[in-house]
Design brief:
The structure holds two protein chains of two kinds. By secondary structure, chain A is of the alpha/beta class. Chain A is built from ten helices and ten strands. Helix content of chain A is 35%, strand content 23%. In chain B, helix 1 crosses helix 5, helix 3 crosses helix 6 and helix 7 runs antiparallel to helix 8. Chain B is built from eight helices and no strands. The chains are: A alpha/beta, B mainly alpha. Chains A and B meet through helix 2, strand 6 and helix 3 of A and helix 4 of B.
Chain lengths: 277, 257
């Protein structure tokens, strides 16, 4: 790695986004976005659906490249990374997909073993031990022979978490980890994210629109909307913020800076058939 | 004016599609070289692509051979040339029907399955998950299937031809009374190892390459929804069947002048 790639990075930051611009076709998603993820912490990225939160994770994972700006992960500049470098970096990242994305042909055990088998030449006995350790952590050691189709949504997500941490990564990214779970599974996942982060000394990025769960586990919160960071701070700081935009999202208020009504001509004049001006 | 515009849009879309398929092929071929080191993955796919297609190929081969003998005998007997029945059956099968029909069956049975499998893996984010686990889906998913399809096609075509010849024997000798020795010796004299068998083999290699290419590309390129996967599967069967028939004409005109 050339010294240029290390330029301007804060040693306490694992991930940095600098002046990132991105658009899907003609629809702008981010304009001049700046964001820092600190090492060892759980950082929640919150915002309304469709504001580009998942796109952010794709930048960090190197699956998308911003139109301009820099994405740095552990001192490596993602925009210019060669494929080999990118794959080496991905071995140290875990990602939990919203739909779990378990390999449907493989059992629970083989799913968790998959990254270990692909990237190491460990003897079978050691692979078994590693897999059972991870499955024990998520409480599913007893379900090792199940197929993904036999799992509930919450169980599948826990298996996917075990798989994401199979190689003891430096960082795990969670894409909407709380969506579509019953209250018990939700509680389990909330507890696991915190526990895994602290027990394995990792960094976690949680992308979510669930304010309560997000705030309950995050050390730091970024609130995103309208292509940029609206506000950031600890969950307490955000909850006590005076900004009407922050208040609307944190309190779940239907009307505010994000209007309840989609832009439309005047209601009464449309109803009474007058020509919209 | 609008029809001109939509024609232009269609042409551009088609060219873009070809470009993507070409880029995909170059990636896949690089990955195929890498996957040779993990031949176990290819063997697994040889089973699901090749062995599982064997039944339909064998049954079809048998019946095609039997029908060839019936039809051929009826025509030949008018000229008193029924002694040439073995040769007619064998040449038709090795040169044309073996490679072409096997490729069509292969597209319907294995090609559609490949597209659906890869397309569903994409739709359920399994391919994305592999990428994030630093496992290249091109290498882990596409390349073994590609290689397995390419390798199984000539073998399947050979089985089809073999069973077809036996089917011709069953009908020609068993039912129509052609002498068994004559059936085999006309074949021995008339079928040339290079001109007929080798050329047929080349055909089935080309067909295997094209059908598998279309199948894995359509799956990998599918819109990741259930509707997108179903459309991709249809495109695989239609596209690869047409490609096989078109290429067969080109290859035949080059090989058998």
């Amino acid at each position: 790695m050339s010294p240029v790639e290390h330029a301007n990075t804060d040693p306490a930051a694992l991930v940095e986004l600098r002046n990132v611009d991105f658009s899907f076709g003609s629809r702008p998603v981010f304009e001049n976005l700046n964001l820092t993820i600190a090492r060892g912490q759980v950082t929640a990225i919150m915002g309304p659906s469709g504001c580009g939160k998942s796109t952010l994770l794709n930048f960090v994972g190197g699956r998308l490249t911003p139109k301009s700006g820099e994405v740095t992960v552990d001192g490596t500049l993602m925009n210019t990374s060669r494929r080999k470098q990118l794959y080496a970096l991905r071995k140290r990242m875990g990602m939990l997909f919203q739909r779990s994305a378990l390999l449907t042909d493989f059992s629970v055990f083989e799913n968790v073993a998959f990254p270990i088998r692909e990237h190491t030449d460990l003897p079978e006995a050691l692979v078994t031990d590693l897999v059972l350790l991870k499955l024990q952590l998520v409480g599913l050691r007893g379900a090792r022979d199940h197929m993904p189709s036999e799992l509930s949504g919450g169980m599948a997500r826990r298996v996917a978490l075990a798989r994401a941490i199979a190689l003891d990564p430096m960082m795990v990214m969670y894409d909407e980890p709380f969506t579509g779970l019953d209250p018990i599974s939700m509680g389990v996942i909330v507890r696991l994210i915190r526990q895994v982060n602290d027990a394995l000394g990792m960094t976690s990025i949680v992308v979510t629109h669930d304010v309560r769960e997000g705030c309950s586990i995050a050390d730091y919160v970024y609130l995103i909307g309208g292509g940029n960071v609206i506000d950031h701070g600890t969950p307490e700081q955000l909850q006590n913020s005076d900004s009407p935009q922050v208040q609307q999202f944190m309190g779940g208020l239907p009307d505010g800076p994000v209007p309840y009504h989609y832009p439309a001509p005047d209601y009464l004049s449309e109803l009474f058939g007058e020509e919209p001006k | 004016m609008n029809s001109v515009r939509s024609l232009g849009a269609w042409v551009i879309k088609a060219i873009i599609g070809w470009g993507r398929a070409g880029l995909f092929l170059s990636h896949a071929l690089t990955a195929v070289v890498l996957v040779l080191r993990r031949f176990g993955l290819v063997v697994q796919q040889l089973f699901s692509v090749g062995v599982l297609t064997l039944v339909i190929v064998l049954v079809s081969g048998l019946f095609v051979g039997m029908v060839l003998a019936l039809q051929g005998y009826n025509t030949l007997v008018d000229f008193g040339a029924e002694s040439q029945l073995g040769l007619v059956v064998a040449l038709t099968l090795t040169r044309e029907l073996g490679p072409v029909l096997t490729a069509l069956l292969f597209a319907g049975r294995a090609g559609s399955a490949l597209t659906a499998e890869i397309g569903l893996m994409k739709a359920t984010e399994q391919l994305a998950a592999m990428e994030m686990m630093a496992v290249d889906p091109m290498e882990r998913v596409v390349a073994p299937r590609f290689l397995a399809g390419f390798l199984s096609m000539p073998l399947l075509a050979a089985m089809f031809t073999l069973v077809g010849v036996i089917g011709g024997h069953l009908v020609g000798v068993g039912l129509l009374g052609v002498d068994s020795g004559v059936y085999w010796s006309s074949m021995q004299e008339g079928v040339d190892a290079h001109a007929d068998i080798f050329n047929g083999m080349i055909k089935s290699l080309v067909f295997g390459f094209v059908v598998t290419w279309v199948a894995v590309f359509e799956g990998y390129d599918a819109t990741p929804t259930s509707e997108g996967v179903s459309r991709a599967t249809t495109r695989t069967v239609v596209g690869s069947s047409l490609a096989v028939l078109g290429l067969d004409f080109v290859l035949t005109s080059l090989m058998f002048e």
